[in-house]
Design goal:
mainly alpha
């Protein structure tokens, strides 16, 4: 019984320690995706070598601006406001929001 308790406690501790690491990895992966997208939009495709490397280094090392809303958050706010103005409810609102957010 004591062995099972110790094993459970050990596994719990491992999960607690590794949770922030996986969260940081997901954040860095999202940042990499965003920076790649921005590089491509600026015409710094895979064949641009040093220009792309410099941009990616700067982009990946940039600290996020706190309290800055993402484009998706702004879109959600605008769609939500429009749905409210149209007094949409239930399935009608869901359909409208889905269409609005996908545009």
């Amino acid at each position: 019984m004591k062995i099972a308790s110790l094993l459970s406690l050990s596994l719990f501790c491992v999960v607690i320690v590794l949770a922030p690491v996986s969260s940081e990895a997901a954040g860095q992966q999202n940042k990499m995706t965003t920076c790649n997208k921005e590089a491509n939009e600026k015409g710094l495709g895979e064949g641009k070598g040093d220009e792309r490397k410099a941009f990616m280094k700067e982009c990946l090392s940039a600290k996020p601006v706190k309290n800055a809303k993402t484009a998706q958050q702004e879109k959600m706010k605008a769609c939500n406001k429009e749905a409210g103005e149209k007094t949409l409810k239930g399935d009608e609102r869901k359909k409208f929001m889905s269409t609005c957010l996908s545009n």
